[in-house]
Each structure stands twice: as C-alpha cells, then as structure tokens.
Design goal:
It is a single chain. By secondary structure, the chain is an alpha+beta fold. It folds into two domains: about 5-195, Ribosomal Protein S5, domain 2, CATH 3.30.230.10; about 205-350, GHMP kinase, C-terminal domain (Alpha-Beta Plaits, 2-Layer Sandwich), CATH 3.30.70. It is about 35% helix and about 20% strand. Helix 2 (about 85-100) links the parallel strand 5 (about 75) and strand 6 (about 105-115). Helix 6 runs antiparallel to helix 7 (about 260-280). The relative contact order is 0.17. Bound molecules: (3R)-3-hydroxy-3-methyl-5-(phosphonooxy)pentanoic acid. (3R)-3-hydroxy-3-methyl-5-(phosphonooxy)pentanoic acid binds near residues 49 and 166. (3R)-3-hydroxy-3-methyl-5-(phosphonooxy)pentanoic acid (PMV) binds near residues 223, 273 and 314.
C-alpha cells in the first residue's frame, strides 16, 4: 500500500483488547556510505543517503502498554524519569499519538539496552528509535486486533521512526537501504527508506565495519544542530549536486562489484561531511589528530592494494570498511599497524546485518 493509505488505515484502528501488552524488538544501528546532512521541514532529507545496517551494534527495547491509565504516555526510560533519551522521545510521542491514536490512552513503560557504549560514536538514535517504533506499532496492532502485511508494516515503521531520528528509518531493513527520493530508484521516497539489496553484487555480501574508537569524549556537534546549519550553508547547492552524483556512482559500484569506485565515493562523502561541518557557521572540527593519522594509514594501505576504505559520521571515530574476502588480512593490518592508536579494546568489529527482529524470549538480560 501507499504510505498515505497505511496511515489512513492506522488512524481508524480502535481498541479491542483491554489488558496490559508487552513486546520486545531488537533493531540495529546503520552506517551511511552516502551521508544525509541537512533536512527540510517534516524531518525530510535535503539529499538521498545510502547505508547498510549493522549486526552487533543494536538496541533491544521492551515496551509494555497499560490501558486506561491516568498516567498516559512515556514518562520514564529504564525506570528513570530523567533518562536523556526522554528529551527526544517526548516530541516523538506527540507524533505517535497523532498517527496511532489507538495508543493515546495508554501508559507506556520502556526498557531499552544498547550493545555498544555511548562513546562509540555509533548512531544510538538510529537503533533506539527504530526499535521503539517497531514495539509501538506492534503493540498498536495487538491492541486493535489488526495486522499490517509485512511490507506495509516495515514501510510504515520506517516512516514513523524517521520522525524520531532521520537515520533511524534506514535501520528498519537489513543490508543496504536508500532513504530520499531519487530518480535512481523508482520506489524511493523522502518519507521512508527502501531495501535495495536486489541491486547489490555478491562480493559486497557481509561487508565488515571495524569501528576504530579515537575518543570517548561527547561529540561537540549534535546532528540536529548540524542539519540546521546546512540551511544557510554557502555550499548547500554544491552539496546537493555532489550527493546525487555520488549516489549514482555508488549504485553503479554496488551493482558491478566495483570496490575501488565504492571506496572513492565513500571516502569522498565522509571527507565532504566534515568539510561541510568545518565550513558551517561556527566551524566545528570533530576530527582529532588521531582520526587524521588513521585516515593516512588506511589510505597508504589501500593504495598498496589492501581492499579497505574509511567512512566517518559526525564525530572523530573512523569506520573501516572491508569485504568478507579480506577479513583475515584487514584484521591483521588493524592489529599490526593501528595498534598504537587503537589497541584491541578500542576496536569494535561489526558487519552487515539482517535487520530488526522481534524477540520472543529474553536470555541473560536485565531489560
Ligand atoms: O539521523 P541523524 O539526525 O542523527 O543524522 C545522521 C547524520 C549522519 O550520521 C552524519 C549521516 C547519516 O546519513 O547517517
């Protein structure tokens, strides 16, 4: 169904069950190779982006909805009414009850856990909001006795999670996704991400991401502020042209298995993101000296023939990307040649994952 039709159907849902309901979902973070930077009203992206979902870096969220409560909405996270995630959840909840009114009279209890440290610079808002959204829609289906077809469920989850955090909409699918309207994919939309795995060459199956932790310091620029700075950015028009051109090159590289081309485009995107941040009003420099040293060493190894490239989000940590076929060589390179900057405990090894999962039984967890 079209998104508008799904939204219309959900608006008509009525409560048919009056007991407490619990559900648990696990959803991954994702790493963008083509960066979303700059948004329009309605949490819509200025340019299309492309990412792959991670596997080990994920959030597990357990949500319980209590009916007819005098204490409506989400008042605490992990029993903490001061939890930092609540600042972002409160405005999101207003969107949720507008779009899923069947949840309005419920008190919502959330317990959530990330597998990765906050300081890892991994987008916890992407995994956090996608997991939260999936639990909310799932509970709403249960309460109303409705069940969306899988494709519609995922499309709607992508669109709603976007309202919590833009990049969250890409975490709803496993493997590679594109978010943002582009002529390159006829199904693409500014409102939700799409699964593009049917266009990917097998040599890119199970891509790896070793996250090289450079700094545990809180990053100095929130993505909300960074996106806002793009509105008046002197290079905004150039960035739009560049992003669309890079996306077309990335599509070709991914379809043909062209590692060199994907490496060039991805590194260009990462450096351009930081160039835009540096040349924004206020000019934040998020890269640390160690980030630059890692970039040089990765490039030297790459130019000598090791199939690796880097990407970077709005922080100092470096994501080192490599194919499954080079796993042993790249991990030896990290151990032998990056160890003085990133010893073993400063590297998180992750890889491309299969997307969110409903959890039926929790083991060894205090959620
Ligand atoms: O989803 P947000 O608002 O946290 O923005 C994410 C921005 C980048 O991580 C820098 C790029 C991206 O596309 O993920």
């Amino acid at each position: 169904m079209e998104l508008k039709e799904i939204q219309k159907e959900i608006l008509s849902w009525k409560p048919s069950f009056n007991e407490e309901v619990t559900t648990i979902w696990r959803s991954p973070s994702n790493i963008a190779l083509l960066k979303y930077w700059g948004k329009r009203d309605g949490q819509l992206p200025v340019n299309p982006s492309l990412s792959f979902s991670l596997s080990k870096a994920h959030t597990t969220t357990k949500l319980t909805a209590f009916p007819n409560s005098n204490n409506r909405g989400i008042k605490a996270v992990n029993d903490n009414p001061e939890h930092p995630f609540l600042n972002k959840i409160k405005p999101f909840w207003q969107t949720v009850i507008k779009e899923i009114p069947v949840l309005t009279n419920y008190s919502i209890d959330i317990h959530t856990q990330n597998t990765f440290p906050h300081s890892a610079g991994i987008a916890s808002s992407a995994s956090g909001f996608s997991a939260l959204t999936l639990t909310l829609i799932d509970v709403a289906q249960f309460i109303s006795g409705n069940q969306l077809p899988k494709e519609d469920f995922l499309r709607y989850a992508s669109s709603l999670s976007r309202m919590g955090s833009g990049s969250a909409c890409r975490s709803i699918y496993g493997g590679f996704t594109v978010w943002g309207a582009t002529d390159l994919w006829s199904q693409s939309s500014d409102y939700y991400a799409i699964d593009i795995n049917q266009n990917i060459h097998p040599s890119f199956n199970n891509l790896h991401d070793a996250i090289l932790l450079v700094s545990a310091k809180e990053k100095s620029l929130s993505s909300t502020k960074g996106h806002a700075l793009m509105k008046e950015h002197p290079y905004a028009n150039g960035r739009l042209l560049q992003a669309n051109n890079n996306l077309s090159l990335a599509k070709k590289a991914l379809a043909e298995g062209d590692w060199e081309l994907l490496s060039d485009v991805s590194e260009n995107e990462a450096l351009s993101l930081h160039a835009l941040i540096i040349s924004s009003q206020g000019g934040d420099v998020l890269l640390e000296p160690a980030s630059l040293e890692l970039i040089q060493r990765i490039r030297n190894a790459r130019y000598k023939g090791l199939p690796i490239f880097f990407t970077i989000d709005a922080g100092p940590n470096i994501h080192l990307i490599y194919p499954e076929s080079a796993k042993a060589n790249v991990e030896a390179f990290i151990f032998n040649e990056l160890n003085d900057i990133c010893p073993v405990d400063k590297v998180i090894y992750d890889h491309c994952g299969t997307g969110p999962q409903k959890i039926h039984e929790l083991k060894n967890s205090n959620l």
